[in-house]
Design brief:
Helix content: 40-55%
Number of strands: 9
Bound molecules: guanosine-5'-monophosphate
Strand content: 15-25%
Largest sheet: 5 strands, parallel
Number of domains: 1
Strand order of the largest sheet: 2-7-1-8-9
Distance between the termini: 33 Å
Shape: globular
Radius of gyration: 19 Å
Structural class: alpha/beta
CATH topology: Rossmann fold
CATH superfamily: P-loop containing nucleotide triphosphate hydrolases
Order of helices and strands: EHEEEHEEHEHEHHEHH
CATH class: Alpha Beta
Amino acid sequence: MNTNEQGKGILIVLSGFSGAGKGTLVRKLLDTYEEYTLSVSMTTRSPREGEVGGVHYFFTDRAHFEEQIAGNGLVEYAEYCGNYYGTPRAYVEEQLAAGRHVILEIEIQGALQIKKLFPESLLLFVTPPSAAELARRLKGRGTETDEVIAKRLARAGEEAEGIEAYDYIVINDDLDVCVEELHRIVQAAAAAPVRRETFINQIREELKGFAKGE
Ligand code: 5GP
């Protein structure tokens, strides 16, 4: 398994405009490389056709969601287009400790909370090559009403304001190219000193030994 030197996985936040192709991208990444895992979020939005509880989301009501917030059961949460979305804490902590890279497919308010709580997390923003392409993909999906599409395009405009907060922007034009680029970014990030604490401490100790002539 190709994880970082601490034996701990990287917490990867993947955001992007609704319609940027994040879902397909993540599926391909998970199918191609075994070191990644996806956190399943909790939401109060209704399931779309074909969505399965426990696979795509844990679907719940507002009262239960608010209990989770109060009980510190979520690492982050946000309200998006009138619904709550949040990341359950237990799975994220378990998987990181087991050395897997955990992907959170979340929007920008959640991303900023994660960066604050986990400064060593990696924030990636996925975008289509242009706004026109984004509108085309949203309409082509055929699962949303015109009103929802308009809301999501307006929200994309707001999210574009926050792009600077991310570590990397990934343009999703060709899926295969995009998956490889994402994986390369994660590999490079794993080598940053902030994620190699164990290695740094170990080599410092060894060097002290040499200095003493051991
Ligand atoms: P959708 O309703 O299209 O599945 O998701 C709407 C938005 O909510 C997307 O931008 C998605 O990334 C984001 N989202 C999904 N799960 C979470 C979560 O657990 N926390 C936050 N903050 N956003 C989420």
